[in-house]
Backbone:
């Protein structure tokens, strides 16, 4: 059984560190303050987790470290334990006063930066300031993970792996008894969530914690984002299971392609190619390499193996407070890897009208190579075979 650690949510010290990073940035750019409106950035600087919808929220900090949280009325009680100097509440959206105008009118400083990138919103509020610097970009703040983030992502990866373990252990019996894809998803995620509830302390109650998955089989596996259906997987088909888990607001992924029955020569060739891609990507995920170069490593293996025409997506994406976040292990992303960046690793081969294959691991950049955080793929390829009657 998976070994789960005694773990705590992100601490006040974590948010002190992230705010210090922002204050240093404010000083470096010669600003008087910074307005944050991206939900993941708000999580990162405040620990105020809320359900994102059409109602905007904002976090503002001045160069002298005075902080404000701007929220809609329905989040009033939810925000009460957030460590900020002032909480300012607007009534509703769209409201008599637009929420962004409400934020701007309650900021005293006139030379500020912001993560708002919507030009219509910028035009709406820019007259409240002498300078509104929307090019002072903080998107790379969350690229390199701090120790507490790494701990939570590592813990989330265990629940993603556990979901695959439950599926591996029970899929033969369930599929033999005519269990469909949706029912398989429900079973394995509920079992993993049950473990999560048993293991996490009440301190996590106000933070996002969840496990979600998709399962698609047979020819439907050729859809990279295939929807789980009321379809019953069949013997000799592939079955793709992709899992995302979140602990304390931080995300990790794990996933595998199972073969339902004894693999044929074609299936084994593809599985071995995918393993080669996975392992080479991790081996090269080191400081100083560009994101797009990691994707090129995967591309070279696909081409050498003759499967490149069946590839539909980049090799991976960043993970943290969002399931998918920058930077991207993709053509065109020239971001240089730095230690403690965390990515997904997703080799995928999709043969239209035949089958599909994808594995998913979470991995971290280290000095001389990468390290796989999720562990299911560490097991032998034999563990990806499910025997059916």
Residues:
């Amino acid at each position: 059984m998976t070994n789960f650690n005694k773990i705590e949510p992100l601490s006040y010290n974590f948010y002190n560190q992230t705010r210090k990073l922002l204050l240093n940035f404010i000083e470096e750019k010669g600003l008087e303050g910074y307005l944050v409106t991206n939900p993941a950035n708000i999580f990162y600087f405040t620990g105020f987790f809320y359900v994102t919808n059409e109602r905007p929220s904002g976090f503002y900090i001045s160069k002298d470290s005075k902080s404000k949280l701007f929220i809609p009325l329905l989040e009033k009680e939810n925000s009460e334990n957030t460590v900020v100097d002032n909480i300012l509440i607007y009534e509703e959206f769209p409201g008599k006063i637009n929420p962004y105008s409400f934020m701007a009118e309650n900021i005293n400083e006139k030379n500020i930066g912001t993560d708002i990138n919507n030009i219509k919103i910028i035009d709406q509020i820019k007259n409240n300031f002498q300078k509104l610097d929307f090019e002072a970009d903080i998107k790379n703040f969350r690229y390199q993970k701090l120790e507490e983030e790494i701990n939570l992502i590592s813990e989330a990866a265990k629940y993603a792996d556990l979901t695959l373990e439950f599926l591996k252990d029970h899929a033969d019996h369930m599929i033999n008894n005519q269990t469909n894809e949706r029912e398989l998803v429900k079973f394995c995620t509920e079992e993993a969530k049950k473990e999560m509830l048993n293991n996490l302390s009440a301190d996590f109650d106000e933070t996002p914690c969840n496990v979600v998955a998709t399962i698609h089989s047979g020819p439907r596996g050729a859809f990279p984002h295939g929807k789980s259906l009321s379809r019953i997987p069949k013997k000799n088909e592939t079955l793709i299971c992709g899992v995302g888990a979140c602990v304390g607001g931080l995300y990790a992924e794990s996933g595998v392609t199972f073969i339902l029955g004894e693999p044929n020569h074609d299936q084994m060739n593809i599985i071995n190619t995918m393993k080669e891609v996975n392992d080479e990507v991790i081996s090269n995920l080191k400081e100083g390499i560009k994101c797009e170069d990691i994707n090129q490593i995967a591309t070279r293996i696909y081409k050498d193996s003759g499967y490149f025409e069946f590839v539909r997506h980049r090799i991976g994406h960043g993970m943290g407070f969002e399931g998918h976040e920058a930077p991207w292990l993709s053509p065109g992303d020239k971001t240089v890897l730095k230690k403690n960046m965390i990515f997904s690793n997703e080799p995928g081969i999709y043969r239209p009208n035949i089958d599909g294959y994808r594995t998913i691991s979470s991995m971290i950049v280290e000095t001389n190579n990468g390290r796989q955080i999720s562990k299911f793929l560490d097991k032998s390829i034999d563990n990806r075979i499910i025997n059916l009657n």
